[in-house]
Specification:
Length: 472
């Protein structure tokens, strides 16, 4: 298709016009068509500049179109356009976002061939991406290289270094050493430095050290951010210091610092594990009233908590809220609710949720296999007492779906059908049980024998009645 048919440009195209049009176009491919059609009008003498190139590169990177973005770099070089480091960094950040740290390094190395000398900003950006991606070996090598290239340590670069060291339990002392030496290097630790260390300490369970740092931070007039508060709240909850965590939550709100989803989730988890699920539910209401959307973790935490306290009605309500929000409960959550109903002998309800789960297409995978097996077996065993026919149907559906049936389930089914006098089903179950390599226990054998014996007696009684009738 000719570019003329795509777009009618005015006689004098300006870069500002092109920037405006590319910004307005939602579809990245159409934006590229606009970009190309501007230069097709070469008679007007239009040439792309660093602004139009830069914008187009960042649009392509946002759409994960890395190849075309790098092709544009080559075009900039051909057209002798000034390439600034920000264009390279936008590509680096894009690769970081899709977890490709080696491509980040490759693009960083290409800066030189374009005559673009990386500044401190470039080095720190790449270093931070490597740490974020947990490529710590490469990150430390890169940090040494950065120092060799004459980049002096700054608060930002030392913060990233501390973050890298905090990721490794053996290196936390090294992180603290750097932190303590920062003032000597003319760098004052900021709230990010403290936050990183506090987070590292909490993750390693060093909650007292984290609290000390938090106190020191406030003395130094470093305002804790929502992230710092959340790290500490999470750490306190993990160390079963839920009251302290709630105190900190109150303090943070009184300072006007808005809790985020993680803050709420950590507290709910702590409260639920401490047997205070009703307080956790209040937090859910507060969270929703602040327009925060609970996520899978929030809901799992709450369902775990209320099921542990036997509040199944609440568990079902939370499950409904989840579904209304468009989140799909997983096998673990259904498992909690089904087990909860089995614990209070409400096997019909348990079976209803089991059906809902199966109909919802939640089938076993490697990780959830044991959950599926466990809940199917306990529901069948429970139904044997209250609804043998439903138990049998569920048993059949387990067989067709290849979910393992344990010996207790076989024995419960066989015994239950013998007692009902349905010997055909009992015989079938025993046969399938033996084929499956399970040996019926003594109780099952005696039930079977009793069942057949009763039938024998019934037959004799019928014959006697028949003889009786015939002789009259």
């Amino acid at each position: 298709m000719g570019s003329k048919s795509v777009f009618k440009w005015s006689k004098q195209i300006t870069p500002a016009q092109v920037v405006k049009l590319i910004r307005a176009e939602k579809d990245v491919h159409k934006a590229l068509v606009i970009f190309d059609s501007a230069t097709a009008e070469y008679a007007n003498g239009f040439k792309h500049d660093e602004n139009t190139f830069g914008l187009m590169v960042s649009r392509l990177v946002s759409a994960n179109q890395f190849r075309p973005a790098e092709d544009l770099l080559d075009r900039m070089k051909q057209e002798k356009c000034n390439i600034k480091e920000d264009i390279f960094l936008s590509i680096c950040r894009g690769f970081g976002r899709v977890h490709k740290p080696l491509d980040v390094m490759r693009v960083f190395d290409r800066m030189k061939e374009f005559g673009c000398e990386p500044t401190q900003k470039s080095y720190i950006t790449v270093f931070a991406i490597l740490v974020e991606e947990n490529r710590l070996k490469i990150a430390f090598r890169f940090y040494r290289y950065m120092r060799e290239m004459g980049i002096t340590p700054s608060v930002t670069s030392l913060n990233v270094l501390i973050k890298a060291l905090c990721k490794n339990s053996g290196a936390i002392d090294a992180a603290l050493k750097i932190f303590r030496e920062m003032p000597k290097r003319g760098c004052t630790p900021d709230s990010y430095t403290y936050g990183t260390l506090i987070n590292g300490m909490c993750r390693l369970g060093k909650i007292d050290e984290a609290k000390e740092l938090f106190k020191e931070m406030e003395e130094k007039d470093c305002s804790p951010t929502v992230v710092t508060y959340t790290s500490l709240i999470h750490g306190l909850c993990q160390s079963k210091k839920v009251d302290e965590a709630m105190g900190l939550f109150g303090e943070m709100r009184s300072k006007g610092i808005e809790p985020n989803v993680f803050t709420y989730s950590s507290l709910m988890d702590g409260l639920c594990k401490d047997g205070h699920s009703s307080q956790a539910m209040e937090l859910l209401e507060m969270m929703v009233s602040k327009r925060y959307t609970p996520n899978m973790i929030t809901y799992s935490t709450l369902i775990n908590g209320v099921c542990k306290e036997g509040k199944l009605q609440e568990a079902v309500e939370i499950l409904d809220r989840m579904k209304i929000q468009g989140l799909k409960p997983d096998a673990g959550l259904y498992g909690k609710i089904i087990t909860g109903f089995c614990d209070i002998c409400k096997f019909q309800e348990a079976a209803n949720f089991l059906d809902e789960m199966v109909l919802g297409g939640i089938s076993p995978n490697r990780l959830t296999w044991s959950i599926h097996v466990r809940i199917h077996n306990i529901v069948v065993q429970g139904l044997c007492r209250s609804d043998p026919n439903r138990a049998f149907l569920l048993y059949l559906s387990m067989r067709t779906r290849g979910i393992s049936i344990d010996a207790v389930t076989y024995n419960s089914l066989a015994t239950c059908f013998c007692k009902k006098g349905d010997l055909q089903k009992a015989a079938r179950i025993i046969e399938e049980m033996v084929l499956d390599g399970c040996v019926p226990d003594e109780g099952t054998w005696s039930a079977v024998v009793a069942g057949f014996w009763n039938r024998q007696k019934v037959r004799q009684a019928t014959v006697l009645l028949w003889v009786d009738l015939m002789s009259t």
